[in-house]
């Protein structure tokens, strides 16, 4: 299963059938109990903004052309936290839905308000 | 037990033409100063601990420096722990000396972080503490990671950017009394709030500068000099690496590291007379002060405004100007904090001298408030 980090318009996460832990960064084992059989699942895309910033000073000339852009940490309804881009009107605690946008050479997840179109 | 028997510090800022090894040797001016200060010959130094340099990313920085500077140590080690490296190197020196393994450990750092690379290169190198697959492609920077923390802090405490700005104003006021500081021109809260936006809510005056500089200390088994400076406790905590996986953005490993160092058991918080706390950003300083118990939750800025952390205040803080105004050259940045403690405890801080520095609390963090080191230092007459 691929996700946005591999070019597919989806956010994936992992779940451990042995201990029920949930996490975002993919690996071949459960970081909580060590089980070697984690499941990879596609997230619903629904969540809530936990923290958000607007980056004005981008790290490279390529990204400078795209600035300012907003980066948020989103608490997803499945129980993991993920960094994504965010629409300009979003604030902490807003309920959001993931969409996907082009960012330089990549297609990345971007949050918009629940009910709005990406 | 161990003793800080010597310290050395270069000016921080733009030091044209100096390489990492120059600055470590200027940190050989720092190292030499430290050795001279401790009254030690080079062949008496049996341990050498360094950090890392982003402009000299060598596999073996400690022995590169040993050869360059003319040391033949029994033990050499280079530590990489981001901003926590400075205090982590000193903690390791303390543990090795206290265990009887070594007698005199030179801890030295230096880097031409400002003039040895472009500003973009520095910013991009530092941003790589983010996750290479799940964070870095989104275009964050170190200020952006800390801005996320700041957004949550302001949201939960009901404070404003103007409260954080008080800490930048305080560090600048302190730096004005140190001839080696990178930035000495006085600023006010309005200047901070009007400065260039970097990653909201952080503006450029909420962020430490990129600097050239070097710093060194000698950690010894036996005390030297009339006034001793003793390390009486060290502790670390490492709760996560990436900001996305932090258990909380409002409760970090600060208190756990401090407790492991003995704060609250061996040393009561009420006995602390002087503090140096890592201040890579105003938000860093606010959160660390509050989690150490040196300010109430959401109250660090207000205490700074009231003079609590000033030289004459109840808890003098970063009297050299901190990373925010003395400057930040990487590993040497936190070590400059430690140098200031030693100067204060030995009564050599000149116009910055505080009335009482008899017990000091030192705390540093690395990553995005992910790695923590606390040191407790005591003055012995």
Describe the structure.
The complex is a heterodimer of chains A (118) and B (381). Chain A starts with 11 loop residues before the first strand and ends in a 5-residue tail after the last strand. Chain A has a domain at 46-113. Chain A is built from 1 helix and 8 strands. In chain A, 3% of the residues lie in helices and 43% in strands. Chain A has a 5-stranded mixed barrel. Chain A has a 3-stranded antiparallel beta sheet with strand order 2-1-3, with no helix packed on it. With 118 residues, chain A is mostly beta strands. The mean pLDDT of chain A is 93. Chain A has one helix at 61-64, and strands spanning 12-15, 22-23, 39-42, 46-55, 69-76, 81-86, 95-103, 106-113. Chain A is globular and about 45 Å long. Chain B is α/β, with parallel strands linked by helices. Chain B has a domain at 2-116 and 211-220: Thiolase/Chalcone synthase (Peroxisomal Thiolase, Chain A, domain 1), CATH 3.40.47.10. Helices cover 35% and strands 19% of the residues of chain B. Chain B is built from 12 helices and 11 strands. Chain B has a 9-stranded mixed beta sheet with strand order 3-2-4-7-1-8-11-10-9, with helices on both faces. In chain B, strand 2 (47-50), helix 2 (61-69) and strand 3 form a beta-alpha-beta unit. In chain B, helix 6 (161-175) packs across helix 9. The chains are: A mainly beta (118), B alpha/beta (381).
């Amino acid at each position: 299963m691929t996700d946005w980090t591999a070019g597919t318009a989806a956010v994936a996460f992992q779940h451990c059938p042995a201990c029920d832990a949930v996490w975002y960064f993919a690996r071949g084992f459960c970081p909580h109990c060590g089980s070697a059989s984690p499941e990879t699942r596609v997230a619903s895309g629904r969540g809530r903004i936990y923290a958000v910033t607007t980056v004005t000073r981008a790290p490279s000339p390529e990204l400078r052309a795209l600035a300012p852009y907003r980066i948020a940490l989103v608490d997803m309804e499945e129980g993991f936290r993920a960094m994504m881009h965010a629409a300009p009107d979003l604030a902490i605690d807003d309920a959001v839905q993931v969409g996907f946008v082009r960012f330089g050479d990549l297609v990345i997840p971007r949050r918009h308000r629940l009910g709005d179109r990406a | 037990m161990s003793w800080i028997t010597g310290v050395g510090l270069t000016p921080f800022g733009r030091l044209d033409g100096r390489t990492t090894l120059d600055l470590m040797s200027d940190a050989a001016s720092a190292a030499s100063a430290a050795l001279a200060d401790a009254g030690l010959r080079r062949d008496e130094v049996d341990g050498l601990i360094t950090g890392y340099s982003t402009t000299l990313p060598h596999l073996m920085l400690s022995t590169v420096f040993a050869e360059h500077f003319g040391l033949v140590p029994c033990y050499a080690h280079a530590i990489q722990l981001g901003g926590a490296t400075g205090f982590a190197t000193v903690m390791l020196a303390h543990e090795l000396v206290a265990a009887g393994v070594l007698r005199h450990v030179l801890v030295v750092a230096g880097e031409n972080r400002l003039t040895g690379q472009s500003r973009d290169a520095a910013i991009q190198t530092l941003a790589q503490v983010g996750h290479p697959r799940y964070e870095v492609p989104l275009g964050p920077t170190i200020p952006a990671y800390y801005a996320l923390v700041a957004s949550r802090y302001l949201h939960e405490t009901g404070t404003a950017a103007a409260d954080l700005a008080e800490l930048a104003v305080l560090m600048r006021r302190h730096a004005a009394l140190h001839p080696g500081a990178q930035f000495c021109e006085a600023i006010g809260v309005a200047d901070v709030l009007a400065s260039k936006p970097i990653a909201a809510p952080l503006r450029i005056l909420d962020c430490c500068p990129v600097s050239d500089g070097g710093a060194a200390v000698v950690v010894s088994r036996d005390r030297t000099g009339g006034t001793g400076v003793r390390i009486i406790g060290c502790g670390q905590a490492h709760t996560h690496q990436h900001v996305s996986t932090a258990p909380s953005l409002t409760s970090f490993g600060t208190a756990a590291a401090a407790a492991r160092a003995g704060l609250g058991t061996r040393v009561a918080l009420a006995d602390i007379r002087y503090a140096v706390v890592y201040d890579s950003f105003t938000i860093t300083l606010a959160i660390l002060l509050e989690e150490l118990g040196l300010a109430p939750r959401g109250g660090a800025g207000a205490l700074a405004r009231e003079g609590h952390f000033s030289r004459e205040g109840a808890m003098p803080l970063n009297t050299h100007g901190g990373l925010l105004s003395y400057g930040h050259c990487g590993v040497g940045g936190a070590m400059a904090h430690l140098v200031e403690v030693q100067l204060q405890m030995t009564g050599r801080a000149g116009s910055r001298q505080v009335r009482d520095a008899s017990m000091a609390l030192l705390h540093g963090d690395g990553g995005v408030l992910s790695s923590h080191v606390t040191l407790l230092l005591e003055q012995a007459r």
